[in-house]
Amino acid sequence: MSGAVEALFLAGASIQPLFALHHPPAPDTPDAPAAPRGAVLYLHPFAEEMNKVRRMAALQARALAAAGYAVLQLDLRGCGDSGAEFEDASWAGWLDDALFAARWLQQRYPAAPLWLWGARAGCLLAAELAGRIDGPAPNLLCWAPVTSGRPHLQQFLRIKLAGALLDGGGAAAAGGLADMKRTLDDGGMVDVAGYRLPAALARGLDNAKLTVPARPGRIAWLDVSSRAEPSLAPAAERWLAECRTAGHQVASEIVAGPAFWQTLEIEEAPALIDATVALLERAPVEA
């Protein structure tokens, strides 16, 4: 069993109070804590996907802690129980939040290898954050990664268009996407499914791409599929090949399960939890 989960707020001079859940690693014995096998920072998905993934992230954090990893589940500013509102968020601010949390983990567990665990659009943040980490190169754990922010943003904006069509506003929906982009380009905000999307956040997501970290480390790519014979998407294959060429140690796996980040009801994919722990525990390949 892992130790008691610690709810806390991280705060700094230029950082809004950030809510986080700290899962300490399971002790070897009741009175002798284990040296953690790694320190894992969780970066959640964008907007409503964050809520859809929350249960799976909690289950995974507990499983990793039970396997001897320290895990920090972070709510980025404007999300969850962290400070500010969603309309106050920016991509640069989220990167600052993630770096602050990563440094907290490094200070708490200085000898533990650092893993940046991104889910969906959180993978875009994790890959960009990797270049800002001091010390040894961090490792990446990617759950169903978004490889480009632009189509992900467009998919989010189309939620508003779908709502307009359902309400009989076909004329309003016809030019809706262009109108929303114009509003954001002009520095305004767009209301989508209860989220006030600010221009600074939209621009950052629009420009974000899953970059290959410059310093070689370990990369674990996991996805889920309900197909009988699943395979990685071409974009994923290309990115992983680029990572191998850059010297990263890459492992990937697709497990059976639902696309829980977009299902109507909260769903679980137990095979993903087991596969994630197994990939992290796999011994690194010698160079």
Could you please describe the fold and organization of this structure?
InterPro entries: AB_hydrolase_fold, Hydrolase-2_PEP, Hydrolase_4. It comes from Pseudaquabacterium terrae. One of its GO terms (molecular function) is hydrolase activity. With about 290 residues, this protein is an alpha/beta fold. It has two domains: about 5-150 and about 210-280, Rossmann fold; about 160-200, no CATH class. The protein is about 40% helix and about 20% strand. The protein has helices at about 50-65, 90-110, 120-130, 150-165, 170-175, 175-185, 200-205, 235-245, 270-280; strands at about 5-10, 15-25, 40-45, 70-75, 115-120, 140-145, 190, 195-200, 220-225, 250-255. The strands form two sheets. An eight-stranded mixed beta sheet has the order 1-2-4-3-5-6-9-10, sandwiched between helices. A two-stranded antiparallel sheet has the order 7-8. The chain is globular and about 55 Å long.
Class by helix and strand content? alpha/beta
Question: What is the helix tally?
Answer: 9
Number of domains: 2
Termini separation:
34 Å
**Alpha-carbon Rg, integer:** 19 Å
Residue share in β-strands: 15-25%
H/E series: EEEHEHEHEHHHEEHEHEH
Let me know the CATH homologous superfamily of the largest domain: Alpha/Beta hydrolase fold, catalytic domain
Total strands: 10
CATH class of the largest domain: Alpha Beta
Global mean pLDDT: 91
Helicity, in percent?
25-40%
Shape: globular
Segments where pLDDT lies below 50 for 5+ residues?
Answer: none
Instruction: Give the spatial strand order of the biggest sheet.
Output: 1-2-4-3-5-6-9-10
- Per the CATH scheme, the topology name of the largest domain is Rossmann fold
